[in-house]
Design goal:
Elements (H helix, E strand, L loop, with lengths): L1 H36 L8 E9 L2 E9 L6 E5 L23 E5 L5 H4 L10 H18 L5 E6 L1 H12 L4 E7 L5 H18 L3 H8 L9 H13 L9 H9 L6 H9 L3 H9 L4 H4 L7 E6 L7 H10 L5 E6 L6 H4 L1 H16 L1
Parallel strand pairs: 3-4, 3-5, 5-6, 6-7, 7-8
Antiparallel strand pairs: 1-2, 2-4
Helix pairs in contact: 3-4, 5-6
């Protein structure tokens, strides 16, 4: 045993310590670099990471912009439970010159998860109320009658429901990876993966996918199997992957290691809310819009299939509407093509609605 410890255990422990030391040093270096590179120094600018009480729970928001008189843009992340706050600097820096941009870790997610939560509050109506509470907080704080609302994936369903309820609070709505209804969403997504697996003669994938029955409301584990193969075949990420996102979170100056752990734990919010979210069908209940509507769609997106977003878009009526393709992207279009995303927000959305 002493020989084993001397020649195997101790060197292994030493190697692990070395790896951790290097990883944490790299993290510290990257955090400092990002802070320095993204510093807002304009006299009327704002950069803050703070807690805001929304319906009885303290929740984290990040607010950045070069001029607080610019219009406010509230961004709703996906999941439920998948914050984009820690890596928003990868796709927002130019937008911050024209908007005051607000990222929010929703109830049970990311940094906010550490503030406590109850599963009984992880419901769609509670999230709608939270969003409206934050909207009104921002309107009062920045003395603006209306704000812009963007929603990605799950955030696009939440954003749609919010704007349908209180349209007078918003200049325009932007849906990224617009979700319509989970039943059709998962049928189309599964068919895509099955076709890819057959074309690839991937026997393991074909076997695992054969047993799946969307929309997985009785067995969320089936969704995880489907998503594993969906991302393997490029229906979720193009030009990046899970490792890129984890590295962005790990090196984010906005997140501590405890926050990163809380974010990973918070991915279970999807499992809690999935059966309820599956009952919503926006193609039946949200066709009449009172604000301009912009849908941003990845050509290869089969997480929230763009063909369904396009079908929904054709049915809805709005004072102005536009469907904008991201030709090289899948579900995370703002990350895989950040320049086109920023150009769209500044030169299309803002230019046409301010």
């Amino acid at each position: 045993m002493k020989v084993l410890a001397r020649w195997f255990v101790y060197p292994l422990l030493g190697f692990i310590v070395l790896v951790l030391t290097v990883a944490l040093s790299y993290r510290s270096y990257k955090q400092s670099s990002i802070e320095n590179e993204t510093q807002i120094v304009s006299p009327r600018g704002i950069q803050t990471l703070e807690l805001v009480e929304l319906n009885g729970l303290q929740q984290w928001v990040k607010i950045r912009g070069h001029d607080t008189s610019n219009p406010v843009l509230l961004y709703l992340h996906g999941g439920p439970g998948m914050p984009e706050l820690p890596f928003s600097h990868l796709f927002d820096l130019e937008i911050e010159e024209h908007f005051t941009v607000v990222h929010w870790d929703q109830r049970g997610s990311g940094k906010t998860r550490r503030q406590g939560f109850s599963n009984k509050d992880l419901t769609v109506p509670v999230f709608i109320d939270d969003t409206l509470a934050l909207t009104n907080h921002l309107r009062a704080r920045f003395q603006q009658d209306k704000i812009y609302l963007a929603g990605h994936s799950w955030g696009s369903m939440l954003g749609t429901l919010v704007v349908q309820r209180e349209p007078e609070l918003f200049h325009a709505y932007i849906g990224l990876g617009q979700l319509t209804n989970l039943h059709d969403n998962e049928v189309v997504s599964l068919n895509f993966v099955r076709e890819e697996a057959v074309a690839d003669n991937n026997k393991a994938a074909i076997a695992e996918l054969a047993a799946l029955a969307p929309p997985y409301t009785d067995d969320i584990g089936q969704l995880r199997v489907q998503r594993k193969w969906l991302y393997y075949y490029g229906g979720g990420f193009r030009g990046l992957g899970y490792a890129d996102i984890f590295l962005a979170v790990f090196t984010s100056p906005d997140y501590s290691l405890a926050d990163t752990y809380a974010m990973l734990k918070g991915l279970d919010v999807s499992a809690v809310m999935w059966p309820e979210v599956a009952r919503y069908n926006l193609e039946e209940t949200a066709l009449d819009w009172q604000v301009p509507v912009y849908f941003l769609a990845g050509r290869y997106d089969y997480n929230t299939p763009s063909e369904l977003a396009e079908r929904y878009f054709e049915k809805l009526s709005a004072p102005r509407k536009a469907f904008i393709w991201f030709e090289k992207s899948a579900h995370m279009m703002n990350l895989s093509d950040p320049q086109f995303y920023q150009d769209t927000m500044i030169n299309r959305v803002l230019a046409e609605t301010q």
